[in-house]
Amino acid sequence: MIRPFGPTEFWFIVSAVQWTILLSAVAFAGGAVGGLLIALGRVSQNPILRNLCMGFIRLFQGTPLLMQLFLVFFGLNISGVGINPWLAAGLALTLHASAFLGEIWRGCIEAVPRGQAEASWALGLSYYDRMKSVILPQAAKIAVAPTVGFLVQLIKGTSLASIIGFVELTRAGQIINNATFEPFKVFGLVAVIYFILCWPLSIYARRMENRFAATTRR
Amino acid sequence: MGYQFKFAPVFANFDQLLAGALVTVELSFGAMILGTIVAIACAIGKTAGPKPLRFIIDCYIELIRNTPFLVQIFFIFFALPTLGIRLSPNVAALTALTVNVGAYATEIVRAGIESINRGQVEAGTALGLGRAQIFSYIIMKPALRTIYPALTSQFIYLMLSSSVVSVISATDLAAAGNNIQSQTFAAFEVYLVITAMYLVLALAFSGLFSMIQRWAFNYPMAR
User: Fold this and answer.
1) Got the DSSP string for A10-28?
2) Which of A154, B3, B34, B199 is deepest in the core (most CB within 10 A)?
3) What is the pTM of this model?
4) Residue B15: CB atoms within 10 Å
5) Where is pLDDT greater, at A98 or B136?
6) How far apart are CA A133 and CA A129, in angstroms?
7) Contact between B110 and B47 (Cβ < 8 Å)
8) Which of A157, A132, A140 has the alpha carbon at shortest distance from A65?
9) Would A2 be classed as within a structural domain?
10) Is B68 a residue whose pLDDT tops 90?
11) Chain B residue with minimal CA distance to A72?
12) Residues B145-170: pLDDT tens digits?
């Protein structure tokens, strides 16, 4: 039986946005921790650690996010955890975000002038103090725009979790479309909601980038 | 963990995977070429067109860049038929990829065009070159050289995200994997092999692009 596209269907889709936001938040938080470790590994003195982190980044930047999701989803299944879309989507997107944020933040750390690290050495600061008080605060300023830019990419990426059965915005749209056969309204609405989530972030990222370019131009 | 890996049924169907990989390569190259044409047209429109046209192009770029590719492909494959535009899965996939990469590439091409010094264009006018000559030799040729690295990494990203077209039953590499997976139930092994194939494709694309770069831009840089 074909249902009409009424307020119930509308609110079903709109309320599914909470799962998109929650999954994005989980992946972003996990990716921030992982990304920081990867970035620090990429700029470390130890060549083995450096290459391991580079391999991790290359692997995740050279393969489709969809395949990463499938591998984690089916990998968890055969390792005895069972079918669990929440865990699979959260873990796969966290690893994905770790690799991308790691690469972005490596660039930001390397953009801090070398003299800063040398001065910290000369002052006898420990690795921890040098990173925490000198290098990372300066790198963080450079990192804001590209990090927010990646967050937009991550929010859009959570839509792929629908393919492994995670009910978020896109999957809610598919469910309603299968019941109502109103693809124009359904996917139009889904697209508008993603746009409302992502567009302000994109504008913010662009503004920060311009402001940063203006302050560093001499 | 007592799991036995079953790679034999995956490699028994390797011809299907190769056929799928070929479709992925075709879709990617098709979308690269068509997307670049879209991007150059839109970039010209954005830098030299009238205000309403610029507004429309801006809407197109922002709309595509702030919605997921998966939703775009659902829209093209499921919603366009209600307007009477019915596309086969592979054509819908190519259309969606072109529309998507066109928006990203427009911003890249526009940045390239804006990087050209106005003095160069004025010098061209002073030498009596026509509009078409100024555009192709003074603007586009050096602009393409500047944006080439950004454009080609966008193309590799395009090839990787093309795996999403398998959801509308296009016949690409990921879809070949879905087929084999449903016959053999060796899901993890299938996707492991396919992921490796995507990685090889990404490395091959990047190797090809740097070969083209050495061959095509092998002339001294204007100062």
Assistant:
1) HHHHHHTHHHHHHHHHHHH
2) A154
3) 0.92
4) 9
5) A98
6) 6
7) yes
8) A157
9) no
10) yes
11) B188
12) 999 999 999 999 999 999 999 999 89
**Tokens representing residue B176 in the block:** 């070949």
Tell me whether residue B160 is in a domain.
yes
Contact B70 A162 (CB under 8 A): yes
Mutation test of the interface with chain B: which of A104, A156, A158, A209, choosing the one with the most B Cβ atoms within 10 A? A156
Q: Write out the residue range of the structural domain in which residue A82 sits.
A: 7-216
Min Cα–Cα distance to chain A from B132, Å = 33
CATH number, domain containing residue B43: 1.10.3720.10
Q: Quote the CA–CA distance of B74 and B62 in Å, as a whole number.
A: 18
Decide: B98 and B64 in contact? Cβ < 8 Å. Answer: no
Tokens 């690799």, residue located: A99
A195 found inside a domain: yes
| Kind and range of the H or E run holding A135 | none
* CA distance linking residue B100 with residue B78, whole number of Å: 17
Residue of B nearest to A178 (CA): B78
Q: Is residue A66 part of a domain?
A: yes
Mean pLDDT of B105-126: 93
Q: Per residue in B4-29, pLDDT tens?
A: 888 888 888 899 999 999 999 999 99
Structure tokens at A173: 């749209």
Say how many Å lie between the first and final Cα of chain B, rounded: 63
Contacts of residue A190, Cβ cutoff 8 Å, sequence gap at least 6? A13, A169, A170, A172, A173, B71, B74
A44: CATH: 1.10.3720.10
- The answer to the question of residue B3 being in a domain is no
Q: How many domains does chain B have?
A: 1
pLDDT tens column, A78-126: 888 888 899 999 999 999 999 999 999 999 999 999 999 999 999 999 9
Residue B216 has a CB neighbour count (10 Å cut-off) of 12
Q: What is the pLDDT of residue A211?
A: 86
**Distance between CA atoms of residues B145 and B139, nearest Å:** 10
CA gap A177, A35 in Å, rounded: 37
Our separate counts of H helices and E strands in chain A read: 10, 0
Query: Is there a contact between B198 and A68 if contact means CB atoms under 8 Å apart?
Result: no
Instruction: Indicate which of A17, A74, A203 best probes the interface with B, i.e. most B CBs within 10 Å of its own CB.
Output: A74
Nearest-Cα residue of chain B relative to residue A73: B188
Q: What's the CA gap between B1 and B10, in Å, rounded?
A: 22
Rounded mean pLDDT of chain A?
93
**Cβ contact A198–B66 (<8 Å):** yes
Q: What is the mean pLDDT of chain B?
A: 92
Distance of alpha carbon A70 from alpha carbon A165, whole angstroms:
11
